[in-house]
Amino acid sequence: xxxxxxxxxxxxxxxxxxxxxxxxxxxxxxxxxxxxxxxxxxxxxxxxxxxxxxxxxxxxxxxxxxxxxxxxxxxxxxxxxxxxxxxxxxxxxxxxxxxxxxxxxxxxxxxxxxxxxxxxxxxxxxxxxxxxxxxxxxxxxxxxxxxxxxxxxxxxxxxxxxxxxxxxxxxxxxxxxxxxxxxxxxxxxxxxxxxxxxxxxxxxxxxxxxxxxxxxxxxxxxxxxxxxxxxxxxxxxxxxxxxxxxxxxxxxxxxxxxxxxxxxxxxxxxxxxxxxxxxxxxxxxxxxxxxxxxxxxxxx
Length: 300
Known about the structure:
alpha+beta; D-amino Acid Aminotransferase, Chain A, domain 1; nine-stranded mixed sheet; seven-stranded antiparallel sheet; globular
């Protein structure tokens, strides 16, 4: 498979309030964020010309920056407008949207009070995360080497770039060993999430999902919980121990990229994607496009 590098593509990127050619959207090698991880971002999707849950994503972007002790020099409305305009500028109606804010190169030390916040928005086409055959049988998960840090040790409520370092290590290791992703535990040894998605389990027609005490309470996660309850499916947010996994019949992961994706394996355990999982796959697919029909932004 030929990989097209992300720095060598056609198109436009919104950078600090103006559009620049894709290849010119650069930053200096001594940017604070590159050395100290001071960056926050969002992952969003546009469906049929509207970005799903745009306002909720933007609010979280600003909250993440606040948790990392810097301010975004635009209003939420300006970022919402720029996100939609960036899609239009690139001629896309179905795509992935990546806003990111980071500390610049004005100061390079642990202290960063003199840095200026930079902001960019890039968009690109994004096909299904997993192929159809893999989707139907469920993706394969292994166990991650690292655990999610406790909220007392890191700003775990922020979608911060630095927190994804252990996710990249775990995802790479999973793929090298023939898996699709890795399941991470929290600092106490309970189930947390995969490297980039929240996780749900099914038992006796009910849903169970870990409480987001040290990882993101994802917008897709919130949406799926809301949809399930509207469908009459009970949802329990609780502590889930690894030893409990054998008591569940189905499993799936959720996220902007993954949407709702069935899981077929976790280590030596096997799950069988069933009706409840696929009902939620369909319900979510309908929901993210419903806001296009009535021209309202969904902010679940």
